[in-house]
Amino acid sequence: MQQRFRGFLPVIVDVETGGFNATTDALLEIATVLVEMDDDGWLYAGERVHYNVHPFEGANIEKEALAFTGIDPGNPLRDERPELEAMRGTFQTIRQAVRRNQCKRAVLVGHNATFDLGFVKAASDRQNIKRNPFHPFSTFDTAALAGLALGHTVLAESCRIGGLDFDNKEAHSALYDAEKTAELFCLIVNRWKSLGGWPPPSNGEG
Fold first, then answer.
1. pLDDT digits (tens, 9 = 90+) for 18-42
2. 172 annotated active-site
3. I want to staple 19 with a disulfide (CB 3.0 to 4.6 A). Which of 25, 35, 66, 182 is the partner?
4. Which long-range contacts (CB under 8 A, 24 or more apart) does 146-153 make?
């Protein structure tokens, strides 16, 4: 894994939020899916981690955002965790995976990844967490990758074009979207390998 992505470990992340402003709007869900590699160099989705997050004090939550996601903050069935607990638990799992794969840092993989990275960074800063495992600005964006490889940028349609199942009724759950984003990322990377794009030809070849 360390050789495939220049020492970075791809980690899929999806967040559900109370709006679009990472500084002021609530983080309501965070889900991560680790990427694993088999002995032949093929990627597949691994461990999942998911938290329903209790909004931080003073967080803004837009009604339109709740209508879009269907989230009911404060519902006891959500088993909400404090933001600090959710971020610490998420980061601990990622740091362990980084060490296990002998990588130097994680890189966030997301569908429109800058949105997810912005909320991850804002929550980390808000909770004064010093050891954020993610690269501060580099990402792998599956919307861009799918546009190149599959001719579509919407997650649901990209999955369907790639032959992956996608249930619109399950969409906008952080865990479901993270799982589908992970499947899509692995599909694209593996397809590139199957077409002969990886490993690249050595100097003097091709």
1. 999 999 999 999 999 999 999 999 9
2. yes
3. 25
4. 146/184, 146/188, 149/188, 149/191, 149/192, 150/188
